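Sharing a chain and its predicted structure for anyone who wants a worked example. Both blocks are below, sequence first, tokens second.
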Amino acid sequence: MPCTGRIATPGLPAPAAPPEPTVNIFQAESLAAEPSPGPPAPDAPRDTWSGKHEFLLSCLGYCVGLGNVWRFPYLCYRNGGGVFLIPYFIMLLLAGLPLFLLELSLGQYGAAGPIAVWKCCPLLKGIGVGMLLVSSLVSLYYAVILAWTFYYLGTSFQSPLPWSCDAPRNKPLCQNESGNVTQFNPSETFWNEQVLGVTRSSGLGDPGPAQWPLALCLLAAWIVVFLCMLKGIRSSGKVVYFTATFPYLVLLILLIRGATLEGSIDGVRFYLSSDWSKLQSAQVWSDAASQIFYSLGIGFGGLLSMASYNKFDNNVIRDTLVIAVGNCCTSFFAGFAIFSVLGHMARTKRVPVGNVADSGPGLAFVAYPEALALLPGSAFWSILFFLMLFTLGIDTLFGNIEGILTAILDELPALRVGKRRPALLGALCGAFYLLGLLLVTQGGVFWFTLIDTYSTGFGLIIITLFMCLGIAFCYGVNQFCQDIVDMICRRPPWCSHALGYFKVCWVFFTPCLLLFTLIYTFLDVSSAPLRYGAYEYPAWGRSLGVCMGVLTCLQIPLWAVVALCRESGTLSDRLRKTTQPLRSWRTATARDAAENVIDVPFTITLTGTDFASSYES
């Protein structure tokens, strides 16, 4: 704090009790250069990451999710095996890395969440609101996956495993098996009848009662989320040291164990078999773009929120390369661990690998558990696998909830004070739990599939497309690049060259690829009816799903109209004002500059000559 200077005036009577001046010579120079008042101080200081590794591990855990394990390997073998890596890495270079850098840079420079960060261009505030809605829908059903994982983790402590042929209730079913003749195997029967109870529901309009074991597991999942995020990034940043690294250890163990199994090479060969003709299919390129898009967590607001807690001078380009490349390499590595074990199961059952391979929940809760049940010490391998799935899922849920919390706290900063933030977190977790009870009913998997399909469909792509176009053409791509340069002033020479490449992508390549993916998504939605197994969704169900996507998209024009109505003048004047940054933008720069101000004690001694000269003037 600045100190008070004492004035000594020998030979002259002291003035009558003048107010003691408080002087800070550094701040005085700053005020003289910039007379405009700054934004009001927030109600509570904004947290920052305790260390560099916490941010990297949090982002890596957020990006490396369940899709890396249960979706990428399936897409790889379905789309030409090793050939699929060509469009995959092309999409990573032209769309994944530029969008990832855009979100991290925007959050770090603005030091704000998905909504408040659009002070840089108030016309596009609806993008942040749309991100908030998408994150809420994803969090709703992602917690249900954790509930399924909890259930399987608990039952894995039984011996024999309840979905294996050694279980007493499954012996009659296993004795009737003859190749592919039977409709269900023990693992699929356990999943559909005991876990989901879906066989007792007729469809979307018949949810039935809740599966109370799943309801308790869902409650446990949200309690874990609440406890881990109770102190914000200070607590979740410590948890990720385990949850972000443990999956790599388990994948390595599963890969080593799978490599020793008979038939594992058949699974790996099936995983990487090359079919060059697949490159001519637009479906392959669309699958590559969507996998890059979703596996990096772009457009949900989680990346933007986590980057907002960074220090201003963090090298965001380096972090982008480390996290994005690490995420994609994890997907490729996970395929070996998955297909080596599936190859052994196919050899044991004497069927082609393609007959046992699946994607999504079918792989994680049916095919792979069945394969693990064939191994000696199956309970141990099952516990290890489902503990890995839980850590993969919980990190992604951390990022989504952090994005929602940050958006709310930025708009209502008074909630950061005292016990208000834990109360808000508890209210959010409680609300999500109550809403998620619909998804753990006997017909809940139908609702789960509906939300999963449409919440991250065309609506999310449109939000990301407008985010890219808004930064490139409304805020200005040159200004945005300058912002990045301001953040990493001590940058190596390669960063400058990389920034030129990203500028071209933001202006041309990335929007074009997003537009291509959007068009293909519309064609896919309109041509193929939504199904879960043999059940085809009714028209009203598909319409409800489309409304989810439309609701997120409508936020963009809705909040643009609100921003225009708040301004005065002609339409062109209003457009000009709403595309210019607010005065409270760039608070991160001002904050970090303020941290460099040094307050020093000093003493000023005035003589009689000083007073005499002032009297004469």
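Comments welcome. Confidence is low (pLDDT under 50) at residues 1-42, 177-183, 588-604, 613-617.
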